[in-house]
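Reposting from the mailing list since nobody answered there.

I have sequence plus structure tokens for a pair of proteins and want to know whether others read the tokens the same way I do. The first protein:
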Amino acid sequence: MNNCEVMESNVESIARMPVPTVNGSTPASKIASIMVKNNIGAVIVVKMGEPVGIVTEKDIINRIIESKKDADDIIAEQVMTSPLITISYDRTVKEAFEIMRSNNVRRLVVLKGKKIVGLLTERRLLLVCFPEHKNELLQKSEKEI
């Protein structure tokens, strides 16, 4: 598949699945453990089965430093970004790039109705759209961490 064909692909075909979820009262320490265990940088916060926010590694680190509290004393509701920026599963990769750019975000929750069907990251989009630059993109990602 060339770059032009990828840009017209549905986001569901390249989104990461399954997406770990937590509830609003989950401690930041537990969220961090989930991220490490699954080698991911974000989890989705759900309420009654519906997505209400996202917690990233950066959210946890910033909140702990800012509050000077222990990670066990901070919960998902306190650090999550809400409302979520989402994209429907049947939208294109090109549309995903546009939504990310216009909202200044690096992750989109992929929904089918109100159900989470995946998580799409800027990094994943770049790797899929520009596989010829994979090594360069991975090195850049490592430097940003």
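The second protein, same order (residues first, tokens after):
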Amino acid sequence: MQPKISLRQLLPSDGEAYASLVANSPDTGRISTAQHYNLDSYQALTAIHGDFVGVIAEQSGLKGFVGGGLIRFGECQFEGAIRPYAFLNTLVVHPDFRRQGIASQLAKWRLEYARNKIGPDGIIWAIIQRGNIGSELTARKWQGQFLQDRILLIPLRPRNNSPHIIKDFRIGALPTNQLHLVSGQLNGFYQSFNMFTPKSETEPADWCVSSPFNEPFRHLFIVRNAHDEIVAGLVLTETYKLRYMQIVKAPFIARMANRVLHVVPSDNIMREINLSHIWFVPSQINAARYLLETIRWEWRDKASSFIIWIDPICPFIELFNLRPWTLKTETSIVLHSKIKMSEDKPVYYE
């Protein structure tokens, strides 16, 4: 008789045990990674996800967790309306306990909890890395829609030299009392995207004030032109302060490409800065490009990788200069909703 597996909600006091679980449970995607936290994992998860719930699996008589999963909650644009969503993420089962139905139990718990919270009109969705067969099989039990290779993870390495200075552009962090100025710009820029959360006037300031540290770990950078107009911006998150990613396994072709591109450090430890909410006014994509390249130079000593999540049908995909040899991770979207998501609309994810 197999020992009993029980599920319960993740508690603030579970930080150490949860950190041990994810550090020792690398995923099974094409590029296998494991997360390692630099501070209490529950505190870090709160900083990353905000409104979230976790579930963990325990085996009777065994210390620690054998599996777990997270749900992030919020509201987003979806097919022309603002709807509640539940984003399912970080489903993990310890390697010693896989193929015992634990992932299915965790998935069922999350689905029921999410649907009860967001109601019948809410959107439940997740992304799955290409090659993660176990997660795909689990998701196909509940999905209503599957969109193949719709979100790319692009790791950019720091620059080795300063970008060419464009005198008409000035880059800087926006002062707290001016952060409200970008809310309208962001909302207008992403108005055609599914899954984007419209920003209130106070939300950008909340990003930059809320922190588990004594100083902010999120920063909003903008570009001003010669007329002192704000023409582009992005949000920089110092994720490396919260956790780092260990590359456990990568396919041969990715390892060979990395010998030339040098995206993954030799120690296979990714100390990440996440770049999100990239925007620019019409015809000013060069301002956004200049900002992106300047960040990669000025923050080169802080992190080993600059992480961008992007939909390949995004109208500004050219900003990232993708090439056939660009190192990237393809992920697919699984979705459960009363309303089918249009496949020709770009999807926002961070």
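Reply #1 (J.P.):
I read it the same way you do. The CA atoms of residues 208 and 312 lie 29 Å apart.
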